[in-house]
């Protein structure tokens, strides 16, 4: 037997080796042909595989390919597996000017389909697979919310902590969002003296712009060109969320407050979580920015815009969007708008990201009866959408039909679009799951989502580097700094005359003003 093994012809061994090499070459050739036209980034990271200099390199490559690509007689599986690998490398994030791939894809005219995209049929047949037009629209609204985070002054040492760093007229210009074709018409402020964690409070370091209020979002309206593209005049209300969401929702009181005094009484009274209610409804004549509550500020502006454009004979929609706590405020805002502005009948929608449960069964049923359409974008790994009542609610809802009808149990509202953070090939598998709540992570995974059974889209266009704006989730080999989005030098500038580092004085137009909560004229859009 041993002799038989020793006398195995060398020709056979060489033939087997040649077969493996040719199989490998054919596999790479088919891959190159099929993806070269639309995956330049992917091919650039594999260029060295097409230039084998020696037989030893060829053998090493064969072993690596068998281990990674699992090449077998079924070449289709190998290609499908390979296409799921990351297409970016650190070189793809070097600035190459106009030669780089745009971070956004072209936007089509959706005027003939806007009602379906706005939720008229509860997004039926649009979520799995995710319609590309809907993906772009949802991403647009998510970027509006992200703009509130990006321009918020978080510095506890700043006299303007809790305000916007830019006035409403140049917010989108400073953040590169003029491409969406909307104009901000009003800023929204909320009270901060309610029962909230310390981080929500404004700076306590000396005199501040306000000891009682925080900037929470804005009202905006689509311009003429964007309105033609989307088929109607779209009013947007964007609500920001929290800085440390998990701590915030854990600390919230679980009691409920009656929300709709005009609604039914007794067992069917509409109730919402007391902390959300306080932020949305609190006001005081002694404050500069919250003589009106966040609710009153928003509804006043929405009614003004609706009346203005309705008088011009235009179709008007209201899209309310929010992340985290902002998603809760968005639901209450939509409830009031659908109830109090008949001209918006059937055209009120909510797009929320990582939003918690807000109210009881009566709140859910009343929202449905008012015709409010809600699309909840949820990450599988995000704990916040399971709050309040992460265990209690889930058990009661599944126990039996009787307990599932209990009016004091927290309820979710609307249609869910469920995403998986780890579907992205650019995210670390050992990432802190608390980061799964980050809005930029949501937008990244949304951009890569096609359907439940497919992997991350290889032609996703949104900038991957944005994931690390306020997280550390991207793979190390991409060499994107962690938590990179911050004000240069933490807000200090060098005075070139004196050589001293000093805090800059805000431009007068960027200093928060109580007048910004009043009515605004509508400029040419």
TrEMBL record:
PANTHER family assigned to the protein according to its UniProt record, in alphabetical order: ALPHA_BETA-HYDROLASES SUPERFAMILY PROTEIN (PTHR31403:SF13), PHOSPHOLIPASE A1-IBETA2, CHLOROPLASTIC (PTHR31403)
CDD domains: Lipase_3
Keywords recorded for this protein, A-Z: Chloroplast, Hydrolase, Lipid degradation, Lipid metabolism, Plastid, Transit peptide
Organism superkingdom: Eukaryota
Compartments in which it is found: Plastid, Chloroplast
InterPro entries, A to Z: AB_hydrolase_fold, Fungal_lipase-type
A cellular component term, taken from the record's GO annotations: chloroplast
Protein name: Lipase class 3 family protein
One GO MF term attached to the UniProt entry: phospholipase A1 activity
Gene3D superfamilies: alpha/beta hydrolase (3.40.50.1820)
Similarity comment: family membership: Belongs to the AB hydrolase superfamily. Lipase family.
